[in-house]
């Protein structure tokens, strides 16, 4: 494929958040009732924690948000200018400006909706022993409107793309936008992908998630999310391989593509289910002392995976690229990476 064929080939939509990241302690986690390896939406009791983090700990500010992370990593892996686009909502403030600058520098074609009255969303990233917990205060990210998507200059990004990726977190914000994109994908034989994203999405946004499932050609998630999905659907199994197969066999809106389920399990092998069969792919081993934090590991895996999927590569190549990207990211703070990938 010529590089012009990749123009805007991959579109992401999601919640752009500024990560407020710090190594904290167990006492801090207990105080705010935070569990490691989890992702939640901030409640009132969590709101003072962002200030407390910046006073008590060494805080880094990193442009984040699950989908935006994945699209940035895909763009980094592709090294083709203009291959990726992204939409979401930010505030008209210094964090929003910083986000725009960061995403543009990363090579993304960003079309943000800018909310006049709400600050840019933040995500508290609490790290203990390399494991992370995410507490998202969506703010402006929660204000995305389907009217923004329908504007001709934004809908043009949907028309141009051949692959779509939307993290499950966006289900809480604009299910109408997701509906338009998934229906466009189905009608035009394009590839629509989503992520289970968090146990709370599988549990409390089950209905909107279920409306999307028939359209998903690829479903990503981790072992905790897969087990929550299984429990919520009454499947009575904790076996990740069985769950992956069952998700891949749920009904589909069109027969163009079979559904593939891709479940990561931290340091354990990646589980891929398609055609009623499971394959497992080992991840790249990493000595514990090289682990900085797991923030963005799953996002990076998806980004690496998608970078090869848009090239039409076989599934094992997609997984290999996903494992490479997440291995890079967990050795750094947040979802960040060196200037050029070293992936062949």
Automatic annotation (TrEMBL):
Active site, UniProt feature: 299
UniProt keyword annotation of ATP-binding present: yes
Keyword ATP-binding included in the entry's annotation: yes
Pathway linked to the protein: Purine metabolism; AMP biosynthesis via salvage pathway; AMP from adenosine: step 1/1
UniProt entry keywords in alphabetical sequence: ATP-binding, Host-virus interaction, Kinase, Magnesium, Nucleotide-binding, Purine salvage, Transferase
GO molecular function: adenosine kinase activity; ATP binding
Record-level GO BP terms: adenosine salvage; AMP salvage; purine nucleobase metabolic process
Catalytic activity: adenosine + ATP = AMP + ADP + H(+)
SUPFAM superfamilies according to UniProt: Ribokinase-like
Enzyme class: transferase
GO CC annotation terms, alphabetical: cytosol; nucleus
EC number: 2.7.1.20
InterPro entries membership: Adenokinase, Carboh/pur_kinase_PfkB_CS, PfkB_dom, Ribokinase-like
Domain Carbohydrate kinase PfkB: 29-338
UniProt cross-references to Pfam families, sorted A to Z: PfkB
Lineage top rank: taxon: Eukaryota
Cofactor(s) listed in the protein's UniProt record: Mg(2+)
Physiological role: ATP dependent phosphorylation of adenosine and other related nucleoside analogs to monophosphate derivatives. Essential to sustain methyl recycling.
Family per similarity comment: Belongs to the carbohydrate kinase PfkB family.
Name of this protein: Adenosine kinase
């Amino acid at each position: 494929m010529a590089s012009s064929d990749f123009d805007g080939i991959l579109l992401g939509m999601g919640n752009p958040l500024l990560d407020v990241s710090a190594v904290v302690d167990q006492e801090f986690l207990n105080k705010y009732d935070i569990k490691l390896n989890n992702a939640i939406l901030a409640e009132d009791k969590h709101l003072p924690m962002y200030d407390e983090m910046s006073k008590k700990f060494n805080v880094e500010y990193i442009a984040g948000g699950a989908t935006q992370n994945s699209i940035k990593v895909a763009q980094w892996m592709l090294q083709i200018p203009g291959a990726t686009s992204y939409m979401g909502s930010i505030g008209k403030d210094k964090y929003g400006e910083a986000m725009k600058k960061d995403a543009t520098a990363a090579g993304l074609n960003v079309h943000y909706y800018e909310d006049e009255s709400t600050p840019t969303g933040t995500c508290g990233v609490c790290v203990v022993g390399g494991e992370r917990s995410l507490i998202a205060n969506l703010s402006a990210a929660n204000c995305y409107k389907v009217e923004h998507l329908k504007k001709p200059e934004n809908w043009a990004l949907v028309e141009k793309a051949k692959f779509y990726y939307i993290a499950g977190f966006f289900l809480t914000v604009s299910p109408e936008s997701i509906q338009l994109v998934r229906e466009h994908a189905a009608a035009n034989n394009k590839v629509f992908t989503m992520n289970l994203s968090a146990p709370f999405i599988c549990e409390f946004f089950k209905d909107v998630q279920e409306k999307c499932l028939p359209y998903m050609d690829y479903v990503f998630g981790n072992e905790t999310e897969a087990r929550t999905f299984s429990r919520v659907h009454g499947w009575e199994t904790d076996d990740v391989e069985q769950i992956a197969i069952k998700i891949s066999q749920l009904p589909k809106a069109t027969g163009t593509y079979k559904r593939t389920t891709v479940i990561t399990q931290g340091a354990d092998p990646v589980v891929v289910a398609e055609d009623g069969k499971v394959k497992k792919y080992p991840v790249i081993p990493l000595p514990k002392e090289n682990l900085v934090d797991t923030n963005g590991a799953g996002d990076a895996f998806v980004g690496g995976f998608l970078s090869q999927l848009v090239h039409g590569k076989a599934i094992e190549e997609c997984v290999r690229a996903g494992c490479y990207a997440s291995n890079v990211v967990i050795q750094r703070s947040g979802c960040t990476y060196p200037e050029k990938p070293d992936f062949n």
